[in-house]
Amino acid sequence: MTVHPTASIAARSAASVVTGSTPDTQVTSAAPSSTSAASIPGTPASAVITACRACTATIPSIVKASRIAWQSSTFSDMPTVAFLGLGAIGTPMARHLAAADLGLRVWNRTAAKAAAFSAEHRAIHAVTPAAAADGADVVITCLPVSADVESLCDGPDGLLATLRPGSVLVDCTSGDPATSRRLAARCAAQGVAFLDAPVSGGVAGAEQAALTVMVGGDAAVLERVRPVLAVFGKKIVHCGGVGAGDAVKAVNNALLALHLWSTAEGLAALTQAGVRPEVALDVINTSSGRSNASMNLFPERVLTRAFPRTFRLALLDKDVGIAAGVAREQKVATPMLQLTAELFRAAHVALGEEADHVEVVKWVERLTGTVIE
Amino acid sequence: MTVHPTASIAARSAASVVTGSTPDTQVTSAAPSSTSAASIPGTPASAVITACRACTATIPSIVKASRIAWQSSTFSDMPTVAFLGLGAIGTPMARHLAAADLGLRVWNRTAAKAAAFSAEHRAIHAVTPAAAADGADVVITCLPVSADVESLCDGPDGLLATLRPGSVLVDCTSGDPATSRRLAARCAAQGVAFLDAPVSGGVAGAEQAALTVMVGGDAAVLERVRPVLAVFGKKIVHCGGVGAGDAVKAVNNALLALHLWSTAEGLAALTQAGVRPEVALDVINTSSGRSNASMNLFPERVLTRAFPRTFRLALLDKDVGIAAGVAREQKVATPMLQLTAELFRAAHVALGEEADHVEVVKWVERLTGTVIE
Amino acid sequence: MTVHPTASIAARSAASVVTGSTPDTQVTSAAPSSTSAASIPGTPASAVITACRACTATIPSIVKASRIAWQSSTFSDMPTVAFLGLGAIGTPMARHLAAADLGLRVWNRTAAKAAAFSAEHRAIHAVTPAAAADGADVVITCLPVSADVESLCDGPDGLLATLRPGSVLVDCTSGDPATSRRLAARCAAQGVAFLDAPVSGGVAGAEQAALTVMVGGDAAVLERVRPVLAVFGKKIVHCGGVGAGDAVKAVNNALLALHLWSTAEGLAALTQAGVRPEVALDVINTSSGRSNASMNLFPERVLTRAFPRTFRLALLDKDVGIAAGVAREQKVATPMLQLTAELFRAAHVALGEEADHVEVVKWVERLTGTVIE
Amino acid sequence: MTVHPTASIAARSAASVVTGSTPDTQVTSAAPSSTSAASIPGTPASAVITACRACTATIPSIVKASRIAWQSSTFSDMPTVAFLGLGAIGTPMARHLAAADLGLRVWNRTAAKAAAFSAEHRAIHAVTPAAAADGADVVITCLPVSADVESLCDGPDGLLATLRPGSVLVDCTSGDPATSRRLAARCAAQGVAFLDAPVSGGVAGAEQAALTVMVGGDAAVLERVRPVLAVFGKKIVHCGGVGAGDAVKAVNNALLALHLWSTAEGLAALTQAGVRPEVALDVINTSSGRSNASMNLFPERVLTRAFPRTFRLALLDKDVGIAAGVAREQKVATPMLQLTAELFRAAHVALGEEADHVEVVKWVERLTGTVIE
User: Average of pLDDT values for B169-189?
Assistant: First the structure.
């Protein structure tokens, strides 16, 4: 292999829109020219190739190191990476991967988003999960819930139709351990390794390639894909077997949820008792009751009444539910965690699908007849 | 005894034990000299004055500023301060006051402790609360619970027997607002101002004169005594009317309790799911689920199994109860806070009076059949 | 006096509207004729007297027995009874007392109600609490909350202005033990006995003179007033010292609240799982999960969507709060009871002052997106 | 068929110990004589047959009606029934089935129990689940948990190896809906119908053939097997699709658990407040706070300190967990139910596997430092 695999990307990207469904029947819908990598008709693919050549110098050193790592790994070449799920977090993650020269293919349920992405970055638009996974060394999924990942695996257009033995499915979804274990078993049946690898750090962390990646699965497999994860992750932690990454992510988020609610309760009571919430926060944040919620979310989002929509309450509700489920599965009595799950479930029902997670404070305000401002 | 003004302390402690009980019957054990700056008529001030002169250079600048402040305050002279309650937090607080040249009198239920203190520091040992308060401008109490303060007020030996109009009772106990309001009303009836002024920062904060002081009561009264509070407090916050300081302190501590328990639950579940707790904490502490409990208490005290006894669970149980009571009094629904109160109550019953607050984690471990290490 | 004291009632009712405020200044506003006992101008008082004579034969045997009991009690004569609080429960209670020929005086905050009552029954309308209590042997209060009773005691028009030594204040309010103990202490200071004696059985029980009366206070005092309580109570239980009646009533009602909510939760979950709630109730009510809530309230009021307004949620919220407070005061960890207090508090805020207690099920429905029908 | 199918039972029971594993390979271990139906060597099988003939007259009328029902059902003959799980509830259920002349085969994990049963009743001892199910029209399982039923299905000795199309698997285990749905799917794949049919009524109900049977699954299938269920069930209720029976049973038991705990909390608080628990129960049981727990379990088992071991806490903990899981699966916020699950989990850990469910009150006593007696 060469250090700069433009040629191979070009070769692969000869078929800009990959539509194949099973390994042997996979065909490219149109491959008229090596200069066309665009998935949207009329977009000059040469731009992609050119961009690829042009930007090499700007690839960050971590990625350069990655290349060397890959040379000594079990992959015989630079890994080819597929990325599925161009959401708020997934898009900046994919952007870093695109810049890292990894023969990136992208898939998204709403195809236009993937098409637009591939038009702007060094990436090929795959029209099915199977097409994305076909020939990929590392397939990364980043979707709302585990069930979405499961649904991408099935059928002739699914990931499992083309994932080849020796490849790795890295699921960056904030998933649930039970589904991850099921996915891992299905992957293992065809020689594919599986890692659950949810990320934390939010959109900002994703944009700065500074995510924390919590990994569950085989440690050796993690070492093989670590250079790829390092493209967008700053802290990559092996948490345990399959599902352990999901579990740690869910518990972290459940603690966020819990502290958000507990601080809201405390401030509501104090507000009613005549204490201004900024005064209370000023004290709490230099004392023992402080948390990420009190130090950052309340001053920036609640007291200001800004409540920006950065992370949906619906997703945090899901995460708390996963954490509560992990505790139940382990038969660990966790009254506070379980209560949090119920409170967030009711808040989610009351506030709807679009509410931001911090808006749960508005629900506490409504239940208590208080405004924390 | 130290390099610091032995002679003067020795001189002063000639009248070290003040035994008076009511204003008119109170007497000093010895009153030899007219150089007396003591606030109790007839007390030999020379020792005090000498001491005062001798150590001026070492008095921190905040105290120098305090003196000026007092000169311009409604008190006609430097305030005389009494301190009651030489516990783990109270003793270092009193030490700073002794060093600040404020004619300090100290009282403690176990008299030997006050006697020893006065032998070592520039302070007079008062054998009754009334003797301590007699002639004092500022009386500071620092006791386990509000009821203790109330009991110090009553009877011929009580504070209210000698507290003079214009003086201020500053209660640094982590008290409850209802009792504080009752105390304030009783003080007001004889022209004495009352501030509830619980502190946070622990023994370390007290020793470094770096406490946070949460003050409830009249803001103008706080301004008058602020220089005295500044002797041991780094951050002095006016929280609202009488009881507001108590309320803020209680809510802060309830959040500490809540986060201690929530983190224990999360780590117990993860431990059972095969994740090592230090790995989970490593992730949580760089993510959104972090709190003072996860960042400091678990790494330093739980994972190490050190569980040093720095702050009793019994007292934290009391604080959570106060916070829960504030919410109830305000008719603010706080399911999480109330559940915390119940969990800590049961843990307190199970672990006993001497257990440290962090040992509540051991109770979670027992309930869940887990060890977080 | 005679066994049938019509004459004495007439004599007393010569002054139909008693307005006196202190024992010695008490005067009657108008006493034109012994045939006029009506407090509403124009209402022929003779009707009352006639009714009195006419109905003697219908006085239940329990009351006849009572008369004998009173003759042998420490009261030198048949007791004179005052009743304050003509609400939904109080009115039928007072009706039985009126029929029992006990020289009844009635007071109500909205005076028109007391006036109307005295026009229809053998009762004198007292325009102040003091007037009602003046000369009464037994004063019965039945008000929404303990604080209402406390407010009736104070001032020149208050109960304590006229309650004479040896008399008994029986508080049938669903009160709180702490206030009852305060009331008892104030009564004791002037030689008046106090019993907290909340009732259960609802409006129907009150109308059928079939109430359960839970009594706290001195057992000997209860024996003295038992014949009076027996006029409206079927089961009269001495629960313990002052406040014990309140505590038992509050805990009973808290269990009602708790079971109402728990059954709603269970049925909401089953409804969502495809089970019709009447089928589930059919099973539960022949099985171990049954309660008064499942056996009576759900079939009659929820499945029918009738939700009649018989007992306000606001009052049940208050009762749960009292029970939760008793547990807290006793330092008894009661997570379920405390959670119930929080859930009912929030429901009360959400549903308002007029909602019936069973309407809390509508709140559970809203939180869970379910209709139990 | 004949009305009295003794002959056919005799024919079937020719092989007293059925050991076959698959339909075509199934063999009888020994079938020397039609007079030997005993599974324990040396036990005269004739006794079984004789008993069969002798007791016909005592078969209750419900069973006689059942026979007629079966004639009109899809089964071409009287149904042959297998019963697996001779526990505390299962044994009396099986006894009624044996008396009902239904060609009963019994299996139990501890074989000696099944052997003893078949020696005493008209039943054949099957040494494997497959042998029990082989040729059976209705297979009834009654085991601790759903996972036990699942494990009986697998492998060459499992139920699914011999269950024939058209037969019905009726699972009387207090199971969980998810496993029941999985079992139903596996059964359906080979033409076997599945009903989840947990029972309530306890040992006494089972002995009196007065159980309540909660049935999930196809209503028509229930009608076919209703006569068999009527042998031990007094009230047979169709709750909904597969899993609905489990769900109703679990919710009923969760309410039992919840009321047990709530009543314990209330009585602990009252006891500490000086009220004797029998007095409190006397009031509650004539008032609105009553439940099966307060009316039966506390008077009979707690106040007497008898705590007989009739139903294990471990199983009630499991049931509450199932109910909590149903609510979670349906995304229905159920804070009280979930809290109950946590409290019972911790109690189960603390009290161990053998504790009776009512002993959870002892745990509440320990947590609160109270004895309810």
Answer: 97
pLDDT above 90 covers a percentage of chain D that reads 79
Please tell me the least confidently modeled range out of A144-148, B123-127, B312-316, C100-104. C100-104
* D238 plus D102 within the same structural domain: yes
Residue D291, strand partner residues? C291
Q: For residue C77, what pLDDT band results from cuts at 50, 70 and 90? A: low
Question: What is the structure's pLDDT at C115?
Answer: 97
Q: Do D238 and D253 fall into the same domain?
A: no
Whether C330 and C223 map to the same domain: the answer is no
Least confident of A41-50, A128-137, B307-316, C264-273: A41-50
Task: Name which of C257, B32, A292, C97 is nearest D288 in CA terms.
Answer: C257
Q: CA–CA separation, C258 vs D223, rounded Å?
A: 38
Contacts of B200 in chain A (CB under 8 A): 283, 286-288
B99 and B207 share one domain: yes
Q: Which residue has the tokens 């690839």?
A: A59
Which chain B residues are within 8 Å of C321, Cβ to Cβ?
A: 328
In a domain? residue C30: no
Contact D368 B350 (CB under 8 A): no
- Judge whether residue C32 has pLDDT over 60: no
Report how far residue A126's alpha carbon sits from residue D300's, in angstroms, rounded to the nearest whole number.
Answer: 70
Annotated catalytic residues of A are 249
Contacts of D368 in chain B (CB under 8 A): 346, 349
The last residue of a domain, from among C242, C260, C280:
C242
Residue A77 confidence (pLDDT):
59
State whether A328 and A190 are in the same domain: no
Residues above pLDDT 70, as percent of chain A: 79
Domain membership of residue A89 (yes or no) is: yes
**3-state SS assignment for residue B347:** helix
Number of compact structural domains in chain C: 2
* Average predicted confidence (pLDDT) for chain A: 84
> Within an 8 Å CB–CB cutoff, is residue A3 touching chain D?
no
CB C329 within 8 A of CB D274: no
Containing domain of residue C191, as a range? 2-13+61-242
Closest CA to D136 of D146, D155, D123, D151: D123
C214 close to D (CB below 8 A): yes
CATH number for the domain spanning A342: value is 1.10.1040.10
Based on the fold, state whether residues C304 and C208 are members of the same structural domain. no
Hey, what are A110's tokens? 């709403």
The single residue of B113, B249, B318, B362 carrying the catalytic annotation is: B249
C positions 314-373 inside 8 Å of B (CB): 321, 324-325, 328, 331-335, 338-339, 341-343, 345-346, 349
pLDDT over 80 (residue C44): no
Which of C114, C112, C172 is closest to C143 using CA atoms?
A: C172
* Mean of pLDDT over chain C: 84
Asked if the structure places residue D196 within a domain, the reply is yes
Q: Note whether residue D30 is domain-resident.
A: no
* B190 & B337 share domain: no
pTM of full prediction above 0.90: no
- Distance between CA atoms of residues C187 and D109, nearest Å: 71
Distances from the Cα of A351 to the Cαs of A138, A338, A343, B355, C343, in angstroms? 38, 20, 12, 42, 18
Domain boundary among D189, D222, D242: D242
Strand, coil or helix: what is B21? coil
B335:C343 CB<8 A: yes
Check A325 against D328: CB less than 8 A apart.
yes
More confident residue, B46 or A275: A275
Q: Are residues C232 and C89 in the same domain?
A: yes
Range B246-272 average pLDDT: 98
Test C335 with B321 for CB contact under 8 angstroms.
no
CATH of the domain at D74: 3.40.50.720
Cβ distance of C349 and A335 shorter than 8 Å: no
Cβ <8 Å between B340 and A343: no
Give the residue from C225, C31, C17 showing the smallest Cα distance to C127: C17
- Residues of B within 8 A of D369 (CB-CB) are 349
